[in-house]
Amino acid sequence: MNIKPLLALCRISNLPTVWMNVLTAMVLIHQLRPEAIEWHWFPLLSLALSAFYCGGMVLNDLCDYQWDKQHQPYRPLVVGSVSVKTAVIIACMLFALGFFIIALAPFTQAGLVAALALFATIALYDWVHKKTAASIAIMGLARALVFVVVLMALTADWLLWVVVAAGVQFIYTLSLTLVARYEHIRGKPYAGPVIPRMIAAMALVDGLLLAILVSPVWLLAGAAMMLLTRVGQRYVRGD
């Protein structure tokens, strides 16, 4: 079986931006409450939030199936390289994996409530994003909730700078979604890969924030995650 259509369905090339969100939240928590951080939770929470992200991307293609037939006929479900039934199973498994890992976190109840909010936001966006321009705010909220899930799962408390980081990504994601929406409205793609580059730059935004709040060395981490995203996008489309 060719795995590339599955990777494209999940937009797997964009995952380094999610990992950088998790890393940023954990670094900021460590600065404010060092005793709350056990670093083995970084790969676990990265996996959980990656599962939510990929599950959301699969659900997005399921909701957009009819629209993609006319406007994006290269998508895996439309081409038939991945069946609708398989996509439904994959989405369910990914979301289940995300919830399972969060349930193991130090603050299970708070983490699961935040994860449920993330899941609901993802589902709402996928359902309405082709119907209303207000969905750009929902997309921004979904990205911000990545930080909230990490924060709640590890501390069950609201820490200022983690909330600030979530707000910064909310604003950036809002701008990215506006640019992407305008591309659809104008009816033709931009001259270059504007949207993939903006998606990759999410990691750099986190790196810049950590460079300001913690140490300049974190800018290198953001740049590395951005580069990793761009390399991945050369093999699997991220938009």
In short:
The chain is an all-alpha fold.
Question: Can you offer a commentary on this structure?
Answer:
This protein has helices at 4-9, 15-32, 41-63, 65-71, 76-79, 84-103, 108-128, 135-154, 160-186, 194-213, 218-233. The protein is an all-alpha fold. It has a single domain (4-233), classed as Orthogonal Bundle (Tetracycline Repressor, domain 2). The mean pLDDT is 93.
Task: Throw out a few tags for this protein.
about 240 residues, mainly alpha, Tetracycline Repressor, domain 2, globular, transmembrane helix, transmembrane
- Structural class by SSE content: mainly alpha
Low-confidence stretches: none
Helix content: over 70%
The CATH architecture can be given as: Orthogonal Bundle
CATH class: Mainly Alpha
First and last CA, distance: 23 Å
